[in-house]
Amino acid sequence: MSSMPNGQHSSFPPVKLYTTLHDLYLDGKQGPLEETLCVIKPNSDTKYGEVVPFNNKYTIHSAQVGSADDLAHLQMEINCYLLMFYAGPMQVVFIGVAEGQSDDDTLKKDTIHANAQRSFSVIDNTYTDSDAFVKQHPQSSPLHFAFALDFAQSLPYIHSPDKIYKLNSKRWLAECPLRSANDTIIDCAIPPQKLFSSSQTERSAAIDAEIARVKQILLDRPPYVLKLTQSLSSVGTLIVRDEKEREEVIRKAEEYLKEYLPRITKENDYLFPTSLILSDFIPGETMALNFFVKGSGEVVFLGACHQLSTGESGRQATAITFQEQEKLEKKYRDVLDHIGEVLHGEGYRGPCGADVMEDPESGRLFVIDLNVRSALSLVLYTLKDHLNGEREFEMALVYECVMLKIDRDEVEKKFAKEFESARLILMGSTRLGSKEQWAYGMILAGNDQDDIDKLSDRILEFEIEGGQHGDVADAAA
């Protein structure tokens, strides 16, 4: 089997996309689109230094991984491949690690650039543009940032970091007109004169008193869900169903507040960066909705997905059943239109993901989470023609970060038949430095769950021991 220069086997069918962010942003207007996409995730954990762009103002809680270099590979590479896969022929930005920040040669700008080109080489040329990989960001092109970044304050942007931070906060969701699950907001109650006191003793005493106050509130009412106002992936959502879980959640909340309360400054106090949200626990089914809010406020439906436990590993993944999409769009249309109306009122235009839960008793729908940015599972709907229309696969799922002990060439060799039939699509891969570890974003398709489970089990035979657990996947999700 011959291999193309970019690394993709010539017999693998190029991926065709139903729509792209480029087309959605243009909204029928004549191109080209003079805007650039940047989905770099920030880091606010001091132990990782500044290998990943560091946020001191827009603090955000994130997953724990082995090293700063590992975090850089996951958040500056894999995350970008996942969230840019459906960008289409628009300019996209990758960021290499600054000189002197890492000894990992695979994190240098040119290496990241080359790896990105190979990752996107699986997409049909109709939906990409080789010129979209820019060496230097043109000053005339404003940026669509998926996350609030400290350094973005000095760059041309579509939505300000303040706006992005606000719209992605659980605190704003609890306050806005959308129906959420009976939320209670716990803001920092330390008086400014003590919070910003020049006396370290006075400040520390005030922080200790605030932590004690919050712990007392959390002793109250299980079952409940505790949410950090700003977090990446699922690490900021903690469920309390009994006394044992409550003890563990209080311990985690105390650790979080000890770390982040001292980082409230006069520059970010107005952003409420450490707020906690208590929500009623609703044991209902949750659906992940993807959509695009146009400049007019109209909402374009881009798929409804559900969580799936796969194969012998029990690994959780986000899945789509193609034949259900028309029915699900009708079911959730009113909720989508309401979200679009609220976001339009905030001046937002762009992709969005919402987790909507249905109360099994009343049938009421609650918006329990809102990611005002590109969502990972959106890619599944963009593949509906490629997987369902052309090949009649009934369902598909996306693994955001699978850690394997074999490289990309070996994966393509061992699963050549699956790649040729489009049952398996690699969205991107990166090697974690010099270690024999490779991180992959991938899509599995099949006619039913049993079909997908069998393929999943074969792939996970090559997983790094312990790779399905912990926070590694969360860092890239």
Query: Count of DSSP helices?
Result: 15
Residue share in helix? 25-40%
Give the ordered list of helices and strands: HEHEHEHHEHHEEHEEEEHEEHHEHHEEHH
Mean pLDDT over the full residue set: 88
Strand content: 15-25%
Spatial shape? globular
Question: The biggest beta sheet, please?
Answer: 8 strands, antiparallel
Q: Output the strand order for the largest sheet.
A: 12-11-8-9-10-13-15-14
**Strand count:** 15
Low-confidence stretches: 1-7
User: Which structural category fits the helices and strands?
Assistant: alpha+beta
**Radius of gyration over all CA atoms, rounded:** 22 Å
Measured distance between first and last alpha carbons: 33 Å
GO molecular function, one term: ATP binding
Domain ATP-grasp: 182-401
Keywords: ATP-binding, Nucleotide-binding
InterPro entries: Asp-Met_ligase (IPR053269), ATP-grasp (IPR011761)
